[in-house]
Design goal:
- The structure is a single chain.
- This protein has 30 helices and 19 strands.
- By secondary structure, it is α/β, with parallel strands linked by helices.
- The strands form four sheets. It has an eight-stranded mixed β-sheet, sandwiched between helices. A six-stranded mixed β-sheet has the order 1-2-3-4-6-9, sandwiched between helices. A three-stranded mixed β-sheet has the order 5-7-8.
- A hairpin with an 8-residue loop joins strand 15 and strand 16.
- The protein is globular.
- The chain binds coenzyme A and nicotinamide-adenine-dinucleotide.
- Coenzyme A (COA) binds next to helix 12.
Length: 689
């Protein structure tokens, strides 16, 4: 049956797209639309109203088809016909990408107040492919279209009306479209019959500068801006042809493939939440233990979704600091215009900070965020288990520790798990949900439910030192340290990796989080005396000898003064001394050498994490690195990069590293097996889904 149906109401033809779940424009929908227009024309319909079945108008092109050759009828051709007919879009819900382009090709548009509109194609690494860059500027002017398209920003119907995209906002857009007086309808002009927009080179330049910052390294936003600029200088049909050619070219490119991969990885991660064998519990109240950097952020985030929070600190002084930390978050929201002073005051009053466990309410969940110390965390868990009902979920925010050991001896251990938030906890998108040996399906399902409410990307991880993200980070840093002792310098490594697209280089990140934190972690693992690891003393000596602890002391790998950070005084000497003492002749590294080795380290560790069952799917690893560690989204994550390199080429690369440095490198067994079976990491994702 066609996903497009039509029915006549007097001389009005109502055409409905019904392609659940979100009415994407598949080949069958394009054919159905084309047939419906034929039929409407044949019966002489005086008005053709387009609407989507269900809650969505149309979520756009089917991104799954982007990997395949285009199949006729092509959307631009369908829209060109639509534009010549007496059409009006009744936008009952989301209209994105091709969905909005469909509406832009109509003479008029009536939208429900809640409808979300936008041309988000650049977020998928492409430009709009069916008129968006040409028709939108004819409705809004070049400046607005340039900003909306290059940012892929979504907007509501009311804003659409102010911009000139929407003609009327109505609770029932279908009824409004049918009832629209003929005289009003006759006065509506499709984009092709409107005057060309005025050129606006300043607006294009401003959008270009913004895109270079917001979307550093990405090609689609800049290409989209070229097209929007051309809407003012080229006849519509020429502009449409150029846009289509660019769309078809970009969708094949690695950036678009990477962004599609993550789009579907994010949806698959959400779908995971629905596959637990038990339903999630509703969480209304929470206890947070520890009100430092993480605890305050977690408490603030929970409060923001309507969960009643009580925060436990050790004593009055610490409690006062915690209150201050929380107040700082509310004040920052006011400064950013996200909350009013009144709302902030109410928020500060809502979160109760207490000392001790005596008067805790019977909370649904407790999240511990105290010092990274096993014995302190175990004490906290015992106290929580005593103070709260046996049904309360108990979670730890540990970064590295063995969660099974934290939970040892706790009653009803099926309710325990790790919830690894990232800093700042209220802003960072990632949540690693750590499955302990005892965690029940209901506990995990509840954690995923909480993540969805917090609008976070939740990824399930098994227990190992550092789970998925910090374990890969540790390996990446080790390999960068090896490059330091062999001849690179920290700022060179950072520049090479930010050049790859990482949000920050590994040494700048360490300065931010504090060199003492990683130092304590290395001490815990006693790396100096672990025989099967290549121990590089540079970072330890930075702390022990130079006492450089990072930004908080104004001195780490870099010196921090009033201007931009400078290479740290004495750091290059220390690095050179370490090479000398280890008898390693220093050699030059190119940026490409650094990138290849550092990213290969991530991939190598990712393969091991996967093989050990710590991560369920390669795509989950990509989500962790992109959402938690500043890996460039447009590269798709390390596992996607591995497939792009090609697994045999990757194996050759690791073999060559292993030949030179067998302590740091060996070919991961999973890589060998995948090559033998002729499978890719993307194949593993498919098998898991
Ligand atoms: N192409 C292919 N599949 C799509 C899609 C698209 N453009 N948009 C959504 N889907 C699929 C999702 O993969 C998901 O599939 P699944 O059920 O097999 O996992 C399903 O539709 C529902 O999407 P989901 O995002 O889980 O639903 P939601 O209700 O939370 O959000 C949207 C709905 C439309 C707001 C959201 O899916 C969205 O933003 N889509 C992208 C729209 C877009 O970028 N269009 C431009 C394409 S060039
Ligand atoms: P922090 O030092 O800023 O805060 C710890 C807080 O815990 C302090 O306010 C302290 O007073 C309180 N505290 C200590 N012992 C306590 C006890 N017995 N009962 C109640 N409160 C107690 O530390 P943080 O950076 O917020 O880290 C907390 C946890 O989160 C650690 O396990 C850390 O590994 C983890 N974590 C940190 C980050 C990060 O980037 N900071 C990211 C993810 C996870």
């Amino acid at each position: 049956m066609s996903p497009v149906s039509s029915r006549m109401q007097q001389s009005t033809c109502i055409v409905t797209i019904d392609n659940p779940p979100v009415n994407v424009i598949s080949a069958a929908v394009r054919q159905g639309l084309s047939d419906a227009l034929d039929a409407a024309e044949a019966v002489g319909a005086t008005r053709i109203v387009l609407i989507g079945a269900g809650k969505t108008f149309c979520a756009g092109a089917d991104a799954k088809e982007f990997d395949l050759p285009p199949v006729p009828p092509h959307l631009p051709d369908v829209l060109a016909r639509l534009e010549r007919l007496p059409t009006i879009a009744a936008i009952n819900g989301v209209a994105l990408g091709g969905g909005l382009e469909l509406a832009l090709a109509c003479r008029g548009r009536i939208a429900a107040p809640g409808a979300a509109l936008g041309l988000p194609e650049v977020t998928l690494g492409v430009v709009p492919g069916a008129g968006g860059t040409q028709r939108l500027p004819r409705l809004t002017g070049v400046a607005e279209a340039a900003a909306l398209i290059s940012e892929g920003r979504r907007f509501k119907a009311a804003e659409g009306a102010a911009l000139g995209v929407i003609d009327e906002v109505a609770e029932d857009p279908l009824a409004a479209a049918i009832a629209l007086p003929d005289s009003v309808f006759a006065a509506m002009r499709p984009a092709c019959a409107r005057p060309d927009p005025a050129p606006d080179p300043d607006a294009i330049a401003a959008a270009r500068a913004k895109a270079a910052k917001r979307a550093r390294g990405q090609t689609a936003p800049l290409a989209a801006l070229d097209l929007v600029a051309e809407s003012a200088t080229l006849p519509l049909n020429n502009g449409l042809a150029r846009e289509r050619a660019m769309f078809l070219e970009l969708r094949k490119q690695p950036q678009a493939r990477a962004l599609r991969h993550l789009f579907f990885a994010e949806r698959a991660a959400q779908a995971r939440a629905k596959r637990f064998a038990a339903p999630p519990r509703e969480l209304r109240s929470a206890v947070v233990v520890g009100g430092g950097t993480m605890g305050a952020g977690i408490a603030y985030a929970l409060d923001g979704i309507g969960i009643a929070v009580t925060l436990v600190e050790t004593g009055e002084e610490a409690a006062a600091r915690a209150r201050q930390n929380i107040a700082g978050l509310f004040d920052a929201a006011v400064a950013r215009g996200k909350a009013s002073a009144k709302q902030a005051a109410a928020g500060k009053a809502r979160i109760t900070v207490v000392t001790g466990y005596g008067d805790l309410p019977p909370a649904d969940i407790a999240i511990e965020a105290v010092f990274e110390d096993l014995s302190v965390k175990r004490e906290v868990f015992c106290a929580l288990a005593d103070a709260l009902p046996d049904t309360a979920i108990l979670a730890t925010n540990t970064s590295y520790l063995d969660v099974n050991r934290i939970f040892e001896g706790i009653a009803a251990p099926e309710r325990c798990l790790g919830l690894h938030f990232f800093s700042p906890a209220h802003l960072m998108k990632l949540l690693e949900v750590i499955r302990a040996d005892t965690s029940s399906e209901a506990t995990l399902a509840s954690a995923f439910g909480l993540a969805a409410r917090l609008r976070k990307v939740a990824v399930e991880a098994g227990v190992c030192d550092g789970f998925i993200g910090n374990r890969i980070l540790t390996r990446y840093r080790q390999v960068c340290d090896v490059m330091l002792i062999e001849g690179a310098l920290p700022w060179q490594v950072d520049a090479a990796l930010t050049g790859f697209g990482m949000a920050m280089g590994p040494y700048a990140v360490q300065d931010l989080s504090g060199l003492d934190i990683a130092y304590a972690n290395r001490q815990r693992k006693n790396l100096r005396e672990t025989p099967d690891i290549r121990y590089i003393p540079i970072a330890d000596r930075m702390v022990e000898e130079l006492k450089r602890l990072g930004r908080k002391t104004g001195a780490g790998w870099y010196d921090y003064g009033d201007g931009a950070p400078e290479p740290g005084a004495g750091v290059a000497d220390l690095v050179a001394a370490c090479s000398h003492e280890a008898g390693i002749p220093r050699r030059a590294f190119t940026d490409e050498d650094i990138r290849e080795r550092a990213i290969t380290a991530m991939i190598d560790e990712g393969l091991r994490v996967l093989d050990e069952g710590i991560a369920r799917r390669p795509a989950d690893i990509d989500l962790v690195l992109v959402h938690g560690y500043g890996f460039p989204r447009w590269r798709g994550g390390p596992m996607h990069v591995a497939d792009a390199i090609g697994l045999p080429a990757l194996q050759d690369r690791i073999e060559s590293y292993a030949a030179a440095d067998p302590l740091s490198w060996s070919v991961p067994p999973l890589l060998t097996r995948l090559i033998a079976d002729g499978r890719s990491l993307a194949d593993l994702d498919q098998e898991e889904t």
